[in-house]
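Posting this for the archive.
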Amino acid sequence: MTKLIFEKSVENTQGVKITDETVDFSFINSKFLNQNKETILPELTELEVMRHYKELSDKNFCIEKGFYPLGSCTMKYNPKVNELLATLEGFTELHPLQDDEDSQGSLKLMYNLQEALKTVTGMDAMTLQPAAGAHGELCGMMIVKKYFETTGENRKNVIIPDSAHGTNPASAAMCGFNTVEIKSNEKGLVDLEALKAVLDNNTAAIMLTNPNTLGLFEEDILEISKLVHEAGGLLYYDGANMNAIMGYTNPKLMGFDIVHLNLHKTFSTPHGGGGPGAGPVGVVEKLKDFLPVPTIEFNGEKYSRNYNVKHSIGKMKAFYGNFSVLIKAYAYILLMGKNLKDASANAVLNANYMMNKLKKHYLLPHDRKCMHEFVLSGDWQKEQGVNTLGIAKRLMDGNFHPPTVYFPLIVHEAIMIEPTESETKERLDDFVDTMIKIAQEIKENPEEVLSHPLTTPVRKVDETLAARKPDLAYKKA
């Protein structure tokens, strides 16, 4: 067990000696100075501090360590060449306040990335500003709100299927909309009758993921689009699952008006650790004047930032947005070229391969061809004494990160698996074999399965206590 850094402390040890002179802190407002309490800080050499954090990082599970089939989040391989290109001096040393004429290379990259994303999505205009998928959702909902303000309509309702990502209702609510949930049908798709029942002249938009969070393609999408548009509403595309359809179809063909993309999911930029991320938003022609400023434009000779956008919702992010992430996404698109659609084809193939291998051993609520991910249920195993969480804990001892569990909420004891296109057949088979082995272990000795994990730095924990009463501060004995 790794000691806390405080436990490694040796009294009077110094890491770096900053100055030989006494520092006068009188220039700092006294309210910011700790004058009443003893400051408890560890005392270690610089080398020991470095070793401590390296030791902690080695305990972290990452895509370079093993299979990471986290459904809906798409933890896929990020090519290292993209990281190299993002560290080029011309990018890293560009000051965000430099004039456009001094930033032509970076502006060209962003413009070209916009054009590429427009091609992939079918949209007519694009912004690269949002810092993540959920930030892109917020941007999209702000555009919806501003659009209806300019038309003089006070539409208040946003329709959201019960299979939606949890950020969808949050993004709509943050913009002052009421969220109206509609149930899925027996196929796991949008129930058209339920949709018709809530559509009226108060409908601002519907937020849809396609494929949905069950990994199923909404086969009635054209009818859904027709119904919403006839009611005067807009269609918002949650692009979290765009990596399943890239190159085969696009949101414009389905009838969507607004799209956000998760660059980490579809275009291989890093994911996890809190960011940075990027969630570009694309819109159809009638909504392009609502995009955040500045937009990146090209007049045939020079690239520039345009702040004069008629109905703009304003800024979503400072300067260029998370620029280094945009570099990585652009590099990926250039490297893949026309083979971008192969990423989607392989992701769908891998998911269907695994689903058909596992459906004999775990309940498959919707037994039909999936897209890039599929959702099993742990109900059979729960009846034998081990729930989905127990299965996830057991997987950790097989050098696998557990899949997403208990989401989507419409599947009881959900196990949401997404292999991505990055993995080999051998790795997929290893995971399938381990899942089958766990199912067999549960039949034979459920109590033993419940003792896992046994090989992780932290073993069994009380999840409820850890979530509600986290101990985040070191207390000196």
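The chain has a mean pLDDT of 93. The first strand starts at residue 125 and ends at 127.
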